[in-house]
Amino acid sequence: MSTNAWRVIFHPPLDGPTNMAIDQAIMEAVSTNIIAPTLRFYAWQPACLSLGYGQFSREADMERITTHGWGLVRRATGGKAILHTDELTYSIAFPEDHPIVEGDILTSYRRLSAALLNGLHQLGVPAASMPLHETPTTTGPVCFEVPSNYEITFQDRKLIGSAQVRRSKAVLQHGSLPLWGDVARICDALVFENEDERESAKIRVRQRACTVEEALGYELDWDKAAYTMAEAFGTTFDIPLDATDLSQDEEDRANQLAQEIYADPAWNFRR
């Protein structure tokens, strides 16, 4: 690995528990300062509803999720539900003393948003970063209904939803970039009082969130999106990226975490 380089990992589609377990395994490895800061791009198979760390699992409609053949997992990060399908997901992990994540969460969000914005501009998406503002209070279960500070939007509609966790002497941020499809499909994975409420929620989500396909007018290839976004992180932070894979220790730890935590109903339905 090049001196001071970050790792970049491109993973094929994996199930929800495996994806969340790998992110945590990387975070733990990076905290030792033996493993370099790591940028990872991945996808999901099957599609999966992820709940925020503190979100109530009763908001998920398990009958509908099962009917669609989707999965469910609880993230280690906060926020609301995301249906991961037809998207590019990124994660990035740093030791807690890395300059990019020094300060509070919002400050590091702003720094990392610069790279995300750069990547979208390279792809031809005229996206913007939400300025610091008072985030509207919402009781809804859908992450993409309301943009947060420094999250990425297109024409005031949320384009990238991100969340961050700080623990074990490390920082992990991951986020979802919907590439194509109907962003309102998430409403088919959530509980509503009746079908009229479900349809109203779908209208709100389509008004407040969008995909890259809507921004560009055509469907963007996953590989193109992933490699362009990776390059943008390298140029934004003036750092070389070494394409690699997980170490054996990380693979072993991810397998353990997937079985003992992220695939365990005691974790996913603990609230």
By DSSP (H or I, 4+ residues per run), the number of helices equals 8
Shape: globular
Q: Tell me the CATH architecture.
A: 2-Layer Sandwich
| Oligomerization category of the chains in this entry | single chain
Structural class: alpha/beta
Radius of gyration using CA atoms only: 18 Å
**Helix and strand sequence:** EHEEHEEEHEEEEHHHEHH
Name the average pLDDT: 93
Classified in CATH, the superfamily is Bira Bifunctional Protein, Domain 2
The CATH topology: BirA Bifunctional Protein, domain 2
Biggest β-sheet: strands ordered side by side in the sheet: 7-8-9-10-6-2-1-11
Largest sheet: 8 strands, mixed
Number of strands: 11
Q: How much of the polypeptide forms β-strand, as a percent range?
A: 15-25%
What is the share of helical residues? 25-40%
User: How far apart are the first and last residues' alpha carbons, in Å?
Assistant: 42 Å
Main CATH class: Alpha Beta
Q: Unreliable runs, pLDDT <50, ≥5 residues? A: none
Number of domains: 1
TL;DR of this structure?
The chain has eight helices and eleven strands. It has 271 residues and is α/β, with parallel strands linked by helices. The protein has a single domain (6-268), classed as 2-Layer Sandwich (BirA Bifunctional Protein, domain 2).
List the helices and strands and how they pair.
Layout lengths: L5 E5 L5 H15 L7 E5 L5 E4 L10 H7 L2 E4 L7 E3 L2 E9 L9 H18 L5 E2 L22 E3 L2 E11 L2 E9 L16 H14 L3 H5 L5 H15 L4 E3 L4 H15 L2 H4 L3
